[in-house]
Amino acid sequence: MLSFRSVPGIGALLLLAACGSTGSPASGTSVAITATDTACQVAKTELQAGQTTFSVTNNGNQVTEVYVYGEQDGAYTKVVSEVENIGPGTSRDMQVNLGGGTYEVACKPGQTGDGVRTKITVAGAAAKQQEEAYDREVEVEATDHALEGLSSFTAKTGEKIEFKLENKGTTEHELEIFTPDGKEAGEVAPVKPGATGEAVITLTVPGTYSYKCGIGDHAGKGLKGTFTVS
After folding, report:
1. Whole-angstrom Cα distance, residue 196 to residue 138?
2. Is residue 5 part of a domain?
3. Smaller CB count within 10 Å for the chain: N or C?
4. How far apart are the C-alpha atoms of 213 and 186, rounded to whole Å?
């Protein structure tokens, strides 16, 4: 019988092999998304519920953004996660905790419209639905020339505000809110004409915040403004 001691290093090699075969897998799942100006290629469309990192690479010629939409009222309109401002030739990661069900991944070249969509299926328990707590609600109406409802709005530092955007225009509109130093505080994702979207945003610092519709040249048409947080 061969003794481990008779062959130097064999014990260590077997120990390393055992560790490699029984070690715990990496936490979560990583899925590549390749976006172009005409396609949205998701490397894996059947996933397990849990933490997923979508690694997005933009191989197109336009700045793009990528959304994960859940089903709501028979259509895939509920924003589950998003990553924006992905320039040509660059990559961004988007992390999301997915519950069981079906979703659509949308790549939006030019950061507008419904995007090029790919359906994914997630096996496992459905995500628990829970309302995000907020201090108060503010209603905003979007027309094709204005965002109305925030001209006299003020808030206190640390408030959690649910911004509810009703689109009364003829094209998609969104509401992006920026902190006094120009960083995005949050947004209500694009809303179709006649529909309503919402987002809970915490106003973390005092100062003058700005807001706009970031789609196309909508801000230049008047869909923008400021409000104060004290």
Report:
1. 13
2. no
3. N
4. 12
| Whole-angstrom distance, CA of residue 169 vs CA of residue 154 | 25
| Paired tokens of 154 | 């003020």
CA separation, residue 193 to residues 40, 67, 125, 141 (Å) = 25, 19, 33, 11
Region 112-128: what's the mean pLDDT? 87
| Maximum separation of any 2 CA atoms in the chain, in Å | 88
Host domain of residue 97:
29-123
Residues 144, 118 share a domain: no
For the chain, what is the domain count?
A: 2
Q: Give the CATH number for residue 168.
A: 2.60.40.420
Has residue 93 got a pLDDT over 80?
A: yes
**pLDDT grade, residue 15 (50/70/90)?**
very low
21 in the Ramachandran plot: left (φ > 0), alpha (ψ -120 to 50) or beta?
Answer: alpha
The predicted structure's pLDDT at residue 20 = 38
The pLDDT value given to residue 128? 62
